Amino acid sequence: MADISLGTQKPWFSVGKVDSVERARWRLAQSGETRYWNGAQSALGEQSRILAEKIAALVLAEQAVPDLGRRDGLKVEVGIGPLGVGVLHFLNTTGPLVGLDPLPAIRFPDHLPRPMTALIQACWEKYAHLQARGEEIPILSGSAAVVASYNVLDHVQDPPAVLREIYRILEPGGYFLLSCDTVSLASLLKFHVYSRRRDKETLAVICHPFRFWTPRLEELVRRTGFSILWAQQPPWKWLAATVGHAFRILLVAQKPASKPAEVPRGHHAA
After folding, report:
1. Do 147 and 177 contact (CB within 8 A), yes or no?
2. Which of 24, 84, 235, 249 is a good FRET partner for 133, with 20 to 30 A between their CA atoms?
3. Tens of pLDDT along 55-81?
4. What pTM did the predictor assign?
C-alpha cells in the first residue's frame, strides 16, 4: 500500500503548547472517516453499537444532571456523523435539533431490521443536517440551549477552536455534553513509539489526529470558560491516567449564566 504521511501527531501532553494539526492531516483523517462510515452503514453490529452507546451516554448524563433534560430550545450536535443519529435525539425536550458534520449525510440503510430502520428514520425526521466544521459553526452566538459532542474532539483539526465555538453558540447557562476517548500516559508512550509507526495505515491511527490524556482534556474544557458539573471517570482516576487502558470520558459542563462582575481598579472583591 502507498505510504501514508501522518504529519505531526499531537500527544496532547500540554494544553498550552498544542492546539491543532495541519489541514492535510485533518483531510487524511476525514478520508478515514469516510471509509469507516461507508462500511458502518451496512453493518448491523456497528449500527447497534453506535445507537446503544449514545443512548447510554445520555441516560447517564441526565441522571447526573437532571436539568439537562428540562432545558428547551435549540439543540446542536457537533460531529453528529453522516448517519445523522445523535445523542440529543434521545433528549426528551422540545426545540429544533441541528446536526453538524463536515461529511455529507448518508441515507439511512433500508436493509437493516425494521426496528433499526424505523429508529433511524425517526431521527432523520427530527433534525436538520448542516455540513460544516466544528471550528466554524454557522450558528448565531448565544442561541443554543444544549450542545453535544460525542466521540468527536480527537478527530478534528483544532480542538480548542471547536470548544470555543461551542462556548460561543451556547446561551448563558446552557449545557455542554462532551464524550471523548482518553488514554493514559503509558498508552500515549506506546502509541508514539510503536502503534503510530507499525499500524499507520489502520483507521484507528488515521482517524485520530489527537490522543487526549484525561486530566488535560478536563483542563482544556475549563480553560474555554466552562464549569464542569459532572464527569464519569474510571476508578482510581490518577492510576488509570498513568498506566490504565483507554477510557471514553463523559462529562456535562455549563456556560456561566452571566459574566463575573468587574472589580473597579484599586478595589478588591469581597
Report:
1. yes
2. 249
3. 999 999 999 999 998 899 999 999 998
4. 0.82
Yes or no: say if 172 and 258 are a contact pair by the CB < 8 Å rule.
Answer: yes
Judged against a pLDDT cut of 70, whether residue 205 lies above it is answered with: yes
Tell me the CATH class for 23-254.
alpha beta
Domain boundaries, the chain: 23-254
Give me 199's grid cell: 499500524
CA-wise closest residue to 68 among 207, 170, 195: 170
